[in-house]
Design goal:
Blueprint lengths: L3 H14 L4 H16 L4 H20 L7 H7 L14 H15 L3 H14 L4 H14 L2 H14 L5 H12 L3 H14 L4 H14 L12 E5 L5 E5 L1 H5 L10 H18 L10 H16 L8 H11 L3 H8 L3 H4 L2 H18 L8
Helix pairs in contact: 1-2, 2-3, 2-5, 3-4, 5-6, 6-7, 7-8, 7-9, 8-9, 9-10, 10-11, 10-18, 13-14, 14-15, 14-16, 16-18
């Protein structure tokens, strides 16, 4: 019935009675978060959120395996600190706080009224549209839920949440193909979010689908000295195996990256003060390996090089790097790439990830 605050004291007793029940700790975390949303005093609210985080962690320690659990742990700071305000409009912000408290008490109609009033005051409150969709989902009015989720998507199409939330009514109606498309959009919008990954994983479990990236083995480990020169730890088999499969070409991977670190990064990204491993650098290094291996006509490319060449020929190499091989530096290039090439990210997931790694 979505009456989280009423459920809280019952769950607190259950945790005492069965302290090793993982599922009870999981739901207790939800109810503590809801209670925090109804609490006005900042210190008390922070303490409740900290308890919620600890409850989710304990649930995981006890073996609870809900895909969303890791995301909940990541989303809540251990100390219970707050996120940023939902709106710069003070009245809209107040209405959102009241709406959250009403929702936690199961007063869905009153919460909906506040969400929509807030949205009229500030049409850019993503959460107001998103949570309106949630109310309609709880009421079983999936058509109206879709309307409001789409409004949230229109406010910010780069956020993953509304895509993921909009998949829930579709899953309930067993419209698995439509739900898949929403989970894919969520994942490509924020592939580093545990929530987005959990959504796609839940769909895969429900549909018995194997998710996987292409099996590509990069046989090098690159580190840099203080001068920026690359130290390449290359799999000995690539050099000593006597194979005519292009494995020798991996020596160029580190050389290309060394050039980027020493000079090319600064020229390519003049607005950035410090070097980072970028999407452009990784793509350049991988393309260099494929090109060098192809320069010898006697070479029959290894499975890894064949797959890399295929991805590049299909225009999906960057999508593969961003979704399967992103470092902290590479991940910084995702928003710009998403803005320009959302279609390529989508194609990569559909043609490779959803097919167990591609054909």
């Amino acid at each position: 019935q979505q009456k989280f605050t009423e459920a809280l004291p019952i769950l607190e007793k259950l945790v005492v009675a069965a302290p090793d029940d993982a599922e009870t700790h999981f739901y207790l975390g939800f109810c503590l978060t809801a209670q925090a949303n109804t609490t006005k005093e900042a210190a008390a609210r922070k303490a409740l959120r900290a308890r919620a985080h600890a409850s989710f962690v304990r649930s995981k320690e006890l073996g609870y395996e809900a895909p969303v659990l890791d995301a909940l742990i990541q989303d809540l700071p251990p100390d219970g600190s707050e996120g940023k305000a939902l709106s710069e409009n003070a009245e809209a912000g107040r209405l959102m706080e009241e709406a959250e408290a009403l929702f936690a008490q199961g007063k869905l109609e009153e919460a909906l009224g506040n969400y929509q009033k807030a949205l009229r005051l500030d049409p850019n409150i993503y959460e107001a549209a998103l949570f309106s969709g949630d109310v309609y989902t709880q009421r079983g009015d999936f058509a109206q839920a879709e309307v409001w989720y789409q409004k949230a998507i229109a406010i910010d199409p780069t956020r993953e949440t509304a895509y993921r939330y909009s998949a829930t009514p579709l899953m309930k109606q067993r419209k698995f193909e439509q739900a898949r498309d929403r989970y894919v959009e969520a994942f490509i919008s924020d592939p580093y979010s545990r929530f987005a990954i959990a959504g796609l994983t839940q769909w895969a479990q429900a549909t018995n689908t194997r998710l996987a990236h292409p099996a590509i083995d990069i046989p090098t480990d690159v580190t840099f000295d203080e001068k920026g020169d690359a130290k390449i730890n290359l799999d000995a088999g690539a050099l000593l195996g006597g194979k005519d499969d292009g494995s020798f070409a991996w020596i160029t991977y580190g050389a290309t990256r060394s050039i980027w670190r020493k000079e090319k990064f600064a020229k390519t990204f003049p607005g950035e003060k410090a070097y980072r491993h970028s999407l452009a650098e990784e793509a350049d290094a991988l393309r260099g390996v494929v090109a060098f291996s192809k320069s010898d006509k006697k070479v029959k490319l290894s499975p890894t090089l064949t797959k890399l060449k295929k991805l590049d020929d299909e225009g999906l190499l960057e999508a593969y790097i961003l979704l399967a091989r992103a470092t902290e530096g590479i991940a910084q290039d995702h928003p710009a790439y998403l803005q320009q090439h959302r279609d390529r990210l989508r194609r990569y997931v559909v043609e490779y990830v959803l097919t167990g790694g591609g054909k």
